[in-house]
Write a structure and sequence with these properties.
A: 412 residues; alpha+beta; B: 67% helix; elongated
Protein backbone atom coordinates (compact mmCIF):
# COMPACT_ATOMS: atom_id res chain seq x y z
CA UNK A 1 0.00 0.00 0.00
CA UNK A 2 1.32 3.45 -0.88
CA UNK A 3 0.43 6.74 0.76
CA UNK A 4 2.10 9.90 -0.50
CA UNK A 5 3.80 12.52 1.65
CA UNK A 6 1.75 15.76 1.60
CA UNK A 7 5.01 17.77 1.57
CA UNK A 8 7.13 16.13 -1.12
CA UNK A 9 5.00 13.44 -2.73
CA UNK A 10 7.34 10.54 -1.84
CA UNK A 11 5.92 7.40 -0.25
CA UNK A 12 5.21 7.44 3.47
CA UNK A 13 5.92 4.54 5.77
CA UNK A 14 4.31 3.74 9.09
CA UNK A 15 7.00 4.10 11.79
CA UNK A 16 6.28 1.74 14.72
CA UNK A 17 8.57 3.64 17.11
CA UNK A 18 6.90 7.03 16.53
CA UNK A 19 3.42 5.62 15.80
CA UNK A 20 3.21 8.03 12.88
CA UNK A 21 3.76 8.02 9.15
CA UNK A 22 7.33 8.94 8.22
CA UNK A 23 8.71 10.27 4.95
CA UNK A 24 12.27 9.06 4.34
CA UNK A 25 12.68 11.58 1.54
CA UNK A 26 11.98 14.85 3.38
CA UNK A 27 12.11 13.52 6.96
CA UNK A 28 8.67 14.73 7.94
CA UNK A 29 6.17 12.94 10.14
CA UNK A 30 2.48 12.80 9.33
CA UNK A 31 0.14 12.16 12.22
CA UNK A 32 -2.31 9.38 11.43
CA UNK A 33 -5.21 10.89 13.39
CA UNK A 34 -4.66 14.34 11.85
CA UNK A 35 -4.05 13.11 8.34
CA UNK A 36 -7.22 14.70 7.11
CA UNK A 37 -6.25 14.61 3.47
CA UNK A 38 -6.47 10.89 3.62
CA UNK A 39 -9.90 10.85 5.23
CA UNK A 40 -11.58 10.25 1.89
CA UNK A 41 -9.95 6.95 1.31
CA UNK A 42 -9.93 5.97 4.95
CA UNK A 43 -13.65 5.81 4.69
CA UNK A 44 -13.68 4.85 1.04
CA UNK A 45 -16.10 2.18 0.15
CA UNK A 46 -19.56 3.52 0.35
CA UNK A 47 -20.54 0.21 -1.18
CA UNK A 48 -21.46 -2.03 1.67
CA UNK A 49 -22.08 -5.68 1.26
CA UNK A 50 -23.54 -8.43 3.33
CA UNK A 51 -20.91 -10.98 4.18
CA UNK A 52 -21.73 -14.55 5.13
CA UNK A 53 -24.17 -13.61 7.87
CA UNK A 54 -27.17 -11.45 7.19
CA UNK A 55 -26.79 -9.34 10.30
CA UNK A 56 -23.18 -8.42 9.66
CA UNK A 57 -22.52 -5.54 7.35
CA UNK A 58 -18.91 -5.14 6.32
CA UNK A 59 -17.21 -2.29 4.59
CA UNK A 60 -15.44 -2.76 1.33
CA UNK A 61 -12.18 -0.95 0.91
CA UNK A 62 -11.97 0.12 -2.70
CA UNK A 63 -8.55 0.09 -4.24
CA UNK A 64 -7.20 0.39 -7.71
CA UNK A 65 -4.67 -2.24 -8.61
CA UNK A 66 -1.97 -0.90 -10.92
CA UNK A 67 0.71 -2.87 -12.66
CA UNK A 68 4.07 -1.30 -13.36
CA UNK A 69 5.37 -1.93 -16.89
CA UNK A 70 8.96 -1.77 -15.67
CA UNK A 71 9.16 -4.06 -12.65
CA UNK A 72 5.78 -5.76 -12.76
CA UNK A 73 4.90 -4.62 -9.25
CA UNK A 74 1.25 -4.63 -8.37
CA UNK A 75 0.32 -1.53 -6.44
CA UNK A 76 -2.80 -1.32 -4.35
CA UNK A 77 -3.73 2.31 -4.52
CA UNK A 78 -6.89 3.76 -3.05
CA UNK A 79 -9.60 5.06 -5.30
CA UNK A 80 -8.85 8.72 -4.63
CA UNK A 81 -5.14 8.58 -5.28
CA UNK A 82 -3.56 9.28 -8.63
CA UNK A 83 -0.08 8.00 -9.13
CA UNK A 84 2.28 8.87 -11.87
CA UNK A 85 5.19 6.69 -10.87
CA UNK A 86 5.86 3.26 -9.40
CA UNK A 87 6.71 3.61 -5.72
CA UNK A 88 8.89 0.50 -5.93
CA UNK A 89 11.16 1.14 -8.89
CA UNK A 90 10.47 4.79 -9.66
CA UNK A 91 9.27 4.08 -13.21
CA UNK A 92 7.03 6.99 -14.21
CA UNK A 93 4.67 5.04 -16.46
CA UNK A 94 2.07 2.95 -14.70
CA UNK A 95 -0.51 1.02 -16.66
CA UNK A 96 -3.93 0.78 -15.13
CA UNK A 97 -4.78 -2.86 -14.73
CA UNK A 98 -7.99 -3.38 -12.82
CA UNK A 99 -10.14 -2.08 -10.05
CA UNK A 100 -10.59 -4.41 -7.16
CA UNK A 101 -12.48 -4.33 -3.91
CA UNK A 102 -11.05 -5.85 -0.79
CA UNK A 103 -12.84 -6.39 2.45
CA UNK A 104 -11.99 -3.67 4.91
CA UNK A 105 -10.60 -5.08 8.17
CA UNK A 106 -12.44 -4.19 11.36
CA UNK A 107 -9.35 -4.00 13.53
CA UNK A 108 -5.63 -3.82 13.11
CA UNK A 109 -2.70 -4.32 15.43
CA UNK A 110 -0.08 -1.90 14.10
CA UNK A 111 3.58 -2.89 13.98
CA UNK A 112 5.12 -2.20 17.39
CA UNK A 113 8.67 -3.06 16.43
CA UNK A 114 10.73 -1.77 13.55
CA UNK A 115 12.49 -3.84 10.89
CA UNK A 116 15.81 -3.02 12.56
CA UNK A 117 14.57 -4.27 15.91
CA UNK A 118 13.28 -7.48 14.29
CA UNK A 119 16.71 -8.07 12.78
CA UNK A 120 18.34 -7.37 16.16
CA UNK A 121 16.13 -10.03 17.78
CA UNK A 122 17.33 -12.56 15.22
CA UNK A 123 20.96 -11.50 15.58
CA UNK A 124 20.84 -11.69 19.40
CA UNK A 125 19.39 -15.19 19.24
CA UNK A 126 22.10 -16.26 16.79
CA UNK A 127 24.88 -14.87 18.96
CA UNK A 128 23.64 -16.76 22.02
CA UNK A 129 23.15 -20.10 20.28
CA UNK A 130 25.98 -22.47 21.24
CA UNK A 131 25.36 -25.00 18.48
CA UNK A 132 24.81 -22.49 15.66
CA UNK A 133 27.60 -22.60 13.04
CA UNK A 134 29.94 -19.59 13.15
CA UNK A 135 29.37 -18.87 9.46
CA UNK A 136 25.61 -18.77 10.09
CA UNK A 137 26.06 -16.26 12.91
CA UNK A 138 27.53 -13.77 10.43
CA UNK A 139 24.35 -13.79 8.42
CA UNK A 140 23.10 -11.10 6.12
CA UNK A 141 19.38 -10.91 5.70
CA UNK A 142 18.45 -11.16 2.02
CA UNK A 143 15.09 -9.67 2.69
CA UNK A 144 12.78 -8.55 5.48
CA UNK A 145 9.10 -8.31 4.65
CA UNK A 146 6.70 -6.67 7.08
CA UNK A 147 3.36 -8.27 6.32
CA UNK A 148 -0.08 -7.77 7.79
CA UNK A 149 -1.57 -11.26 7.98
CA UNK A 150 -5.36 -11.51 7.61
CA UNK A 151 -7.10 -13.17 10.55
CA UNK A 152 -10.65 -13.93 11.55
CA UNK A 153 -11.39 -13.21 15.21
CA UNK A 154 -14.24 -15.35 16.47
CA UNK A 155 -16.42 -15.12 19.52
CA UNK A 156 -17.02 -18.56 20.94
CA UNK A 157 -18.57 -19.73 24.17
CA UNK A 158 -17.05 -23.13 24.84
CA UNK A 159 -18.01 -25.53 27.63
CA UNK A 160 -16.60 -28.96 28.18
CA UNK A 161 -16.51 -31.72 30.78
CA UNK A 162 -13.09 -33.23 30.40
CA UNK A 163 -11.86 -36.42 32.03
CA UNK A 164 -8.09 -36.69 32.35
CA UNK A 165 -6.29 -39.95 33.04
CA UNK A 166 -2.98 -39.62 34.85
CA UNK A 167 -0.55 -41.83 36.64
CA UNK A 168 0.14 -40.50 40.07
CA UNK A 169 -1.38 -41.41 43.38
CA UNK A 170 -1.93 -37.84 44.46
CA UNK A 171 -3.34 -34.97 42.49
CA UNK A 172 -3.64 -31.39 43.42
CA UNK A 173 -6.03 -29.36 41.40
CA UNK A 174 -7.33 -25.85 41.58
CA UNK A 175 -9.91 -24.62 39.15
CA UNK A 176 -10.86 -21.03 38.68
CA UNK A 177 -14.42 -22.27 39.00
CA UNK A 178 -13.53 -24.04 42.21
CA UNK A 179 -15.26 -27.32 41.51
CA UNK A 180 -14.10 -30.70 40.43
CA UNK A 181 -15.00 -34.34 40.86
CA UNK A 182 -13.61 -37.80 40.43
CA UNK A 183 -10.09 -39.03 41.05
CA UNK A 184 -8.86 -42.22 42.58
CA UNK A 185 -5.84 -42.11 44.83
CA UNK A 186 -5.36 -45.84 45.29
CA UNK A 187 -5.11 -47.16 41.72
CA UNK A 188 -2.02 -46.68 39.56
CA UNK A 189 -4.12 -44.84 37.02
CA UNK A 190 -6.23 -42.05 38.38
CA UNK A 191 -8.98 -40.06 36.74
CA UNK A 192 -10.07 -36.51 37.20
CA UNK A 193 -13.11 -34.82 35.71
CA UNK A 194 -12.87 -31.10 35.13
CA UNK A 195 -15.68 -28.76 34.10
CA UNK A 196 -14.36 -26.09 31.75
CA UNK A 197 -16.07 -22.98 30.48
CA UNK A 198 -14.32 -20.34 28.42
CA UNK A 199 -15.71 -17.38 26.53
CA UNK A 200 -13.36 -16.58 23.69
CA UNK A 201 -13.61 -13.04 22.40
CA UNK A 202 -10.60 -13.05 20.09
CA UNK A 203 -10.15 -16.59 18.89
CA UNK A 204 -7.71 -15.74 16.11
CA UNK A 205 -7.38 -17.91 13.00
CA UNK A 206 -5.14 -17.00 10.09
CA UNK A 207 -7.23 -16.56 6.95
CA UNK A 208 -4.43 -16.82 4.41
CA UNK A 209 -4.25 -20.10 2.53
CA UNK A 210 -0.63 -19.52 1.48
CA UNK A 211 0.71 -19.18 5.00
CA UNK A 212 1.43 -22.42 6.84
CA UNK A 213 -0.95 -22.62 9.83
CA UNK A 214 1.82 -23.89 12.09
CA UNK A 215 3.79 -20.68 11.51
CA UNK A 216 0.82 -18.44 12.26
CA UNK A 217 -0.05 -20.48 15.37
CA UNK A 218 3.52 -20.27 16.61
CA UNK A 219 3.94 -16.51 16.19
CA UNK A 220 0.85 -15.97 18.32
CA UNK A 221 -0.25 -14.75 20.81
CA UNK A 222 -1.18 -11.20 19.88
CA UNK A 223 -2.52 -8.86 22.53
CA UNK A 224 -5.81 -7.43 21.36
CA UNK A 225 -6.10 -4.75 24.03
CA UNK A 226 -3.60 -2.87 21.85
CA UNK A 227 -5.61 -3.31 18.68
CA UNK A 228 -7.02 -0.28 16.90
CA UNK A 229 -9.91 0.36 14.56
CA UNK A 230 -8.64 -0.18 11.04
CA UNK A 231 -6.95 2.78 9.42
CA UNK A 232 -5.35 2.52 6.02
CA UNK A 233 -2.39 4.62 7.16
CA UNK A 234 -1.03 1.73 9.21
CA UNK A 235 -0.48 -0.24 6.00
CA UNK A 236 1.87 2.31 4.53
CA UNK A 237 5.31 0.82 4.00
CA UNK A 238 4.14 -2.75 4.65
CA UNK A 239 2.62 -5.52 2.65
CA UNK A 240 -0.82 -6.79 3.41
CA UNK A 241 -2.58 -9.93 2.36
CA UNK A 242 -6.26 -10.28 1.78
CA UNK A 243 -8.10 -13.26 3.24
CA UNK A 244 -8.65 -16.24 0.99
CA UNK A 245 -10.43 -18.52 3.44
CA UNK A 246 -13.93 -17.31 4.24
CA UNK A 247 -15.18 -16.67 7.73
CA UNK A 248 -17.57 -19.62 7.49
CA UNK A 249 -14.93 -22.06 6.22
CA UNK A 250 -12.49 -21.08 8.93
CA UNK A 251 -14.93 -21.91 11.72
CA UNK A 252 -13.86 -25.55 11.75
CA UNK A 253 -10.27 -24.49 12.45
CA UNK A 254 -11.43 -22.06 15.14
CA UNK A 255 -13.37 -24.80 16.90
CA UNK A 256 -10.37 -27.15 16.71
CA UNK A 257 -8.15 -24.45 18.15
CA UNK A 258 -10.56 -23.76 21.03
CA UNK A 259 -10.72 -27.48 21.77
CA UNK A 260 -6.92 -27.80 21.78
CA UNK A 261 -6.50 -24.78 24.08
CA UNK A 262 -9.16 -25.88 26.55
CA UNK A 263 -7.94 -29.49 26.66
CA UNK A 264 -4.39 -28.28 27.23
CA UNK A 265 -5.55 -26.02 30.06
CA UNK A 266 -7.44 -28.92 31.66
CA UNK A 267 -4.35 -31.15 31.45
CA UNK A 268 -2.21 -28.41 33.01
CA UNK A 269 -4.59 -28.35 35.97
CA UNK A 270 -3.85 -31.97 36.78
CA UNK A 271 -0.68 -32.73 38.66
CA UNK A 272 0.66 -36.06 37.47
CA UNK A 273 2.49 -37.95 34.76
CA UNK A 274 1.34 -39.74 31.62
CA UNK A 275 -1.66 -37.44 31.28
CA UNK A 276 -4.18 -37.99 28.54
CA UNK A 277 -7.74 -36.97 27.87
CA UNK A 278 -10.06 -39.93 27.77
CA UNK A 279 -13.38 -38.12 27.56
CA UNK A 280 -14.47 -34.76 26.27
CA UNK A 281 -18.06 -33.57 25.79
CA UNK A 282 -17.85 -30.10 24.27
CA UNK A 283 -20.81 -27.78 23.95
CA UNK A 284 -20.26 -24.54 22.11
CA UNK A 285 -22.06 -21.50 20.85
CA UNK A 286 -20.76 -19.07 18.24
CA UNK A 287 -21.04 -15.35 18.89
CA UNK A 288 -22.24 -13.05 16.13
CA UNK A 289 -19.42 -10.53 16.30
CA UNK A 290 -16.79 -12.15 14.10
CA UNK A 291 -14.18 -9.57 13.14
CA UNK A 292 -11.72 -9.33 10.31
CA UNK A 293 -8.27 -8.28 11.52
CA UNK A 294 -4.81 -7.49 10.20
CA UNK A 295 -2.03 -8.72 12.49
CA UNK A 296 1.63 -7.82 11.97
CA UNK A 297 4.58 -10.13 11.30
CA UNK A 298 8.04 -9.84 9.82
CA UNK A 299 9.51 -12.56 7.63
CA UNK A 300 13.28 -12.64 7.29
CA UNK A 301 14.91 -14.62 4.53
CA UNK A 302 18.56 -15.66 4.47
CA UNK A 303 20.75 -18.26 2.81
CA UNK A 304 23.22 -20.71 4.32
CA UNK A 305 25.18 -23.19 2.17
CA UNK A 306 22.77 -22.51 -0.68
CA UNK A 307 19.73 -23.43 1.42
CA UNK A 308 16.98 -20.89 2.16
CA UNK A 309 15.92 -20.13 5.74
CA UNK A 310 12.89 -18.06 6.67
CA UNK A 311 12.34 -16.76 10.19
CA UNK A 312 9.12 -15.15 11.38
CA UNK A 313 8.88 -12.45 14.03
CA UNK A 314 5.67 -11.32 15.68
CA UNK A 315 5.40 -7.62 14.72
CA UNK A 316 3.80 -6.74 18.05
CA UNK A 317 5.66 -8.81 20.67
CA UNK A 318 8.91 -9.63 18.86
CA UNK A 319 8.48 -13.38 19.36
CA UNK A 320 10.88 -15.16 17.01
CA UNK A 321 9.87 -18.40 15.32
CA UNK A 322 12.43 -20.62 13.66
CA UNK A 323 15.16 -23.21 14.08
CA UNK A 324 18.80 -22.65 13.20
CA UNK A 325 21.07 -25.30 11.63
CA UNK A 326 23.45 -27.31 13.79
CA UNK A 327 27.22 -27.12 13.94
CA UNK A 328 27.66 -30.89 13.61
CA UNK A 329 31.28 -31.08 14.76
CA UNK A 330 30.40 -29.11 17.89
CA UNK A 331 27.48 -31.46 18.56
CA UNK A 332 29.68 -34.56 18.22
CA UNK A 333 32.51 -33.22 20.40
CA UNK A 334 30.13 -31.99 23.12
CA UNK A 335 28.24 -35.31 23.10
CA UNK A 336 31.49 -37.25 23.54
CA UNK A 337 32.57 -35.03 26.44
CA UNK A 338 29.20 -35.42 28.20
CA UNK A 339 29.24 -39.19 27.59
CA UNK A 340 32.79 -39.44 28.97
CA UNK A 341 31.84 -37.49 32.11
CA UNK A 342 28.80 -39.72 32.72
CA UNK A 343 30.96 -42.83 32.20
CA UNK A 344 33.49 -41.52 34.72
CA UNK A 345 30.71 -40.98 37.25
CA UNK A 346 29.48 -44.53 36.61
CA UNK A 347 32.99 -45.98 36.96
CA UNK A 348 33.99 -44.18 40.10
CA UNK A 349 30.69 -43.74 41.94
CA UNK A 350 27.95 -46.04 40.63
CA UNK A 351 29.95 -49.26 40.11
CA UNK A 352 31.63 -49.14 43.55
CA UNK A 353 28.15 -48.58 44.99
CA UNK A 354 26.86 -51.58 43.02
CA UNK A 355 29.59 -53.81 44.40
CA UNK A 356 28.19 -52.99 47.79
CA UNK A 357 24.68 -53.81 46.57
CA UNK A 358 25.85 -57.17 45.23
CA UNK A 359 26.62 -58.15 48.76
CA UNK A 360 22.97 -57.59 49.57
CA UNK A 361 21.76 -60.25 47.13
CA UNK A 362 20.60 -60.83 43.55
CA UNK A 363 17.06 -59.72 44.17
CA UNK A 364 17.99 -56.11 44.87
CA UNK A 365 20.33 -56.15 41.90
CA UNK A 366 17.50 -57.32 39.66
CA UNK A 367 15.24 -54.54 40.92
CA UNK A 368 17.99 -52.03 40.29
CA UNK A 369 18.46 -53.34 36.73
CA UNK A 370 14.75 -53.04 36.09
CA UNK A 371 14.83 -49.46 37.38
CA UNK A 372 17.69 -48.72 35.00
CA UNK A 373 15.73 -50.15 32.11
CA UNK A 374 12.73 -47.92 32.88
CA UNK A 375 15.05 -44.92 33.18
CA UNK A 376 16.53 -45.79 29.80
CA UNK A 377 13.08 -45.80 28.15
CA UNK A 378 12.11 -42.51 29.80
CA UNK A 379 15.36 -40.82 28.73
CA UNK A 380 15.09 -42.11 25.19
CA UNK A 381 11.50 -40.83 24.95
CA UNK A 382 12.44 -37.36 26.24
CA UNK A 383 15.37 -37.15 23.80
CA UNK A 384 13.21 -38.34 20.89
CA UNK A 385 10.39 -35.84 21.66
CA UNK A 386 12.81 -32.92 21.99
CA UNK A 387 14.59 -33.74 18.76
CA UNK A 388 11.31 -34.19 16.87
CA UNK A 389 10.20 -30.75 18.10
CA UNK A 390 13.45 -29.26 16.80
CA UNK A 391 13.10 -31.04 13.45
CA UNK A 392 9.48 -29.91 13.04
CA UNK A 393 10.40 -26.23 13.44
CA UNK A 394 13.58 -26.68 11.39
CA UNK A 395 11.52 -28.07 8.51
CA UNK A 396 9.18 -25.07 8.78
CA UNK A 397 12.14 -22.68 8.69
CA UNK A 398 13.39 -24.31 5.50
CA UNK A 399 9.97 -24.79 3.95
CA UNK A 400 9.83 -23.26 0.49
CA UNK A 401 6.14 -22.47 0.87
CA UNK A 402 6.89 -20.15 3.81
CA UNK A 403 9.67 -18.51 1.82
CA UNK A 404 7.37 -18.06 -1.15
CA UNK A 405 4.83 -16.39 1.14
CA UNK A 406 7.48 -13.92 2.26
CA UNK A 407 9.06 -13.27 -1.12
CA UNK A 408 6.19 -13.40 -3.60
CA UNK A 409 5.80 -9.65 -3.18
CA UNK A 410 7.68 -7.04 -5.15
CA UNK A 411 10.85 -5.63 -3.65
CA UNK A 412 10.64 -2.04 -2.59
CA UNK B 1 23.81 -60.47 35.61
CA UNK B 2 26.71 -58.14 36.14
CA UNK B 3 27.30 -57.87 32.40
CA UNK B 4 23.66 -56.93 31.80
CA UNK B 5 23.95 -54.33 34.49
CA UNK B 6 27.05 -52.80 32.93
CA UNK B 7 25.37 -52.75 29.52
CA UNK B 8 22.30 -51.11 31.02
CA UNK B 9 24.48 -48.50 32.69
CA UNK B 10 26.21 -47.75 29.39
CA UNK B 11 22.90 -47.54 27.54
CA UNK B 12 21.61 -45.18 30.21
CA UNK B 13 24.72 -43.05 29.90
CA UNK B 14 24.12 -42.81 26.14
CA UNK B 15 20.40 -42.02 26.56
CA UNK B 16 21.15 -39.40 29.21
CA UNK B 17 23.71 -37.83 26.88
CA UNK B 18 21.09 -37.70 24.12
CA UNK B 19 18.54 -36.13 26.48
CA UNK B 20 20.98 -33.45 27.67
CA UNK B 21 22.10 -32.74 24.12
CA UNK B 22 18.62 -32.47 22.59
CA UNK B 23 17.42 -30.23 25.42
CA UNK B 24 20.51 -28.06 24.95
CA UNK B 25 20.06 -27.94 21.17
CA UNK B 26 16.42 -26.87 21.59
CA UNK B 27 17.46 -24.11 23.99
CA UNK B 28 20.28 -22.96 21.75
CA UNK B 29 18.91 -23.33 18.21
CA UNK B 30 15.15 -23.24 18.56
CA UNK B 31 12.83 -20.33 19.12
CA UNK B 32 9.09 -19.76 19.30
CA UNK B 33 7.75 -23.09 20.52
CA UNK B 34 6.01 -21.65 23.58
CA UNK B 35 2.34 -21.59 22.65
CA UNK B 36 -0.33 -19.23 23.92
CA UNK B 37 -3.02 -20.39 26.32
CA UNK B 38 -6.77 -19.83 26.53
CA UNK B 39 -6.31 -16.49 28.32
CA UNK B 40 -4.55 -15.03 25.29
CA UNK B 41 -7.73 -15.42 23.24
CA UNK B 42 -10.29 -14.25 25.81
Amino acid sequence: MVIKCPNCGASLEYDPSEKDLFCEHCGSFVNIEQDEDNEDYKTAGADRSVFDQADIVREILETNVYKCTSCGAELNINGKETSSFCAYCGQPTIVFDRVDGILKPDVIIPFEITKGKAEDILRTKFQKGFFIPKAFKKFTVDRISGIYIPYWLYELEYSDFITVEYSKSKASFASSYGRWSGGSSNSKKSYQSIPMHREFKNLACDASIDLNDNISFMIEPYYFELSKPFDISYLSGYYSDRYDISEARMKANAYKKANTLVCQEAMDMVDGGGKKIIKSTPVYHWGTNTRYAYLPAYFMCLQYKGEPYTFAVNGQTGKLVGAMPLDQSKVIVTSLIIFAVICLIITFIVIPALEMLELLGDRLLFQFSFGLFVLLIVNAKIAYDSFMKYLEVFDLTKERRVRRYATKRQEK
Amino acid sequence: MKLILVLLLLANAAALTCTIMTKWICKSNLSGTEMGDTHDYI
